[in-house]
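Open question from group meeting: does this chain pack into something compact, or does most of it stay loose? Before anyone orders reagents, we agreed to write out a predicted structure and look at it together. Recording both the input and the output here so the notebook holds the full record.
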Amino acid sequence: MVRIPEEVRRQAASKDMRPTVRVGRGGLTEALVEEVQAQLRQRDLVKIKVNRGVFDKEGLGQLWTILCERTGAHLVLARGNVGVLWHR
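Structure tokens returned:
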């Protein structure tokens, strides 16, 4: 388990941080993974918002797990239909 710095946790929880990736009806696609990877190359944190009704609670958990595995990132925050990934 990677230790996530407290400053990163605060940034992820901030209301000022806006989602830069949206997951729509298409769900988890290769294009989505590529977009998250591209954004993680440019910045440390990426906030992802999933449209309501696309995944149930269990499906959201699987989405975060798969995105972390495919991008090499770590899940800092998962609240409702929003998740924040961190790549150091």
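Observations to bring back to the group:
The chain has three helices and four strands.
The two ends are 14 Å apart (CA to CA).
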